[in-house]
Amino acid sequence: MPEQSQSVPEARTAAAEAPPAGGVSRRALLGTAGATGLVLGAAGAGVGYAAAPAQATALSSVGSDRAMFHGKHQPGITEGLQARGHLVAFDLAAGAGRTEAAALLRRWSTTAGRLIAGEPMTQDDTNVARDAGPSSLTITFGFGNSFFSRTGLEKQRPSALDPLPDFSSDHLDKTRSNGDLWVQIGADDALVAFHALRAIQKDAGSAAKVRWQMNGFNRTPGATAHPMTARNLMGQLDGTRNPKPTESDFDQRIFVPASGSSGPAWMANGSYAVVRRIRMLLDDWEKLSLTAQENVIGRKKSNGAPLSGGTETTAMDLEKARADGEYVVPINAHARITRPDQNGGAAILRRPFSYHDGIDTDGTPDAGLLFVCWQADPLRGFVPLQRKLDRGDALSQYIRHEASGLFAVPGGAAAGEYVGQRLLEG
């Protein structure tokens, strides 16, 4: 579970308008949201009850936040972590090929463009998200290795999409791994995210069927006093060293260049997503003392600072030793092993969701991380990091990789185009 942090703060300040005296239409809410929002303090707008809210609030800034569908890159890569997410893979139906895939991506792109803008579907809308704004909704589409043989496009399959190698921590369920097509959905409202999921599933029609689906969550925007790195279900700040868009080499690490790449032209400005369902063995983890947990990670649990001292953003001193000669940051600490300068500069952009799928029959929680990481080339990003972790990461005995996928995510669609058009009509 290579360490990095999200590129945009995921905890955003919540704001809301005073409640209207009468009913307010969706259009009115969208028109006024954000323009007159008031910052909510600890005693913000009235506390509601589940069945009948005592006091409703107008659309807040969280609901009015909007991503952009059309652009250089697809949405859902560099945006901050969202409160709710769905990952779903599809397989093309028997007999479906390139023509059906192109029609499907055209439908999906039309639907994604409307929903991301906070608009309803053109027909058969379920109205699940009727009262909400865009809520930072993003919908991202990718192609799996098997997609290219199914559509007769083998010559266009990137070498970077070759299957990932086996790792010692893998206990993979093949029925929940890979797939012809992959869709990532994220939003700051659970109903908005679910609405998008149902729309994408309905649009698939007879062209494709769901292979697997996973549901995740993150901290709700505004839940912390100030923006901060997310915590995972182990209670650790998860991802302090994510590359930042402000860094000069960010694009070359995360996105396929528009020119000079050895890969196919249709992947220009795209990226590769590694998706892993990583189960956290929480019962074992929680038996450790605080000191033991911090030694496993190499960072303070309270604020993410390296054990060598400083704050969360302080550079880790790998040579600092205690009086007994042992390194302050243990030699097998997760944060030490995953440092880019210890891995030939290998870097990934983490953008995960936590998950909890109930309790097993033996009483252990089925919970962990829906790990999603982005890179220009997984053979130079995820793979070397995971191989290094395989050889001696202290965290490995407390996690288990149970599902895996690798997907080629093309660049964004220009206005009037659909995602993947340059591949499917090239």
Account of the 3D structure:
By secondary structure, this protein is of the alpha+beta class. It has helices at 26-32, 61-64, 98-116, 145-150, 190-204, 250-254, 282-285, 290-297, 334-337, 382-390, 421-424; strands spanning 15-16, 38-39, 84-92, 138-143, 181-187, 208-217, 271-280, 349-350, 353-359, 365-375, 399-409. The strands form 3 sheets. Strands 7, 8, 9, 10 and 11 form a 5-stranded antiparallel beta sheet that branches. The chain has a 4-stranded antiparallel beta sheet with strand order 4-5-3-6. The protein has a two-stranded antiparallel ribbon with strand order 1-2. A hairpin with a 5-residue loop joins strand 9 (353-359) and strand 10. The longest helix is centred in the N-terminal third of the chain and has 19 residues, at 98-116. The chain is globular. The two termini are 37 Å apart.
In short:
The chain has 426 residues and is an alpha+beta fold. 20% of the residues lie in helices and 18% in strands. It has helices at residues 26-32, 61-64, 98-116, 145-150, 190-204, 250-254, 282-285, 290-297, 334-337, 382-390, 421-424; strands at residues 15-16, 38-39, 84-92, 138-143, 181-187, 208-217, 271-280, 349-350, 353-359, 365-375, 399-409.
